[in-house]
Amino acid sequence: SYVLTQPPSVSVAPGQTARITCGGNNIGIKSVHWYQQKSGQAPELVVYDDGDRPSGIPDRFSGSNSGNTATLTISRVEAGDEADYYCQVWESSSDQPVFGGGTQMTVL
Amino acid sequence: QVHLVQSGAEVKQPGSSVKVSCQASGGTFRTHAVSWVRQAPGQGLEWMGGIIPFFGTPNYAQKFQGRVTITADGSTNTAYMELRSLRSEDTAVYYCASHMGDYYYYYPMDVWGLGTTVTVSS
Question: Please, what's the b/e burial string for B97-113 (b: 16 or more CB within 10 A of its CB; e: otherwise)?
Answer without folding.
Answer: bbbbeeeebbbbbbbbb
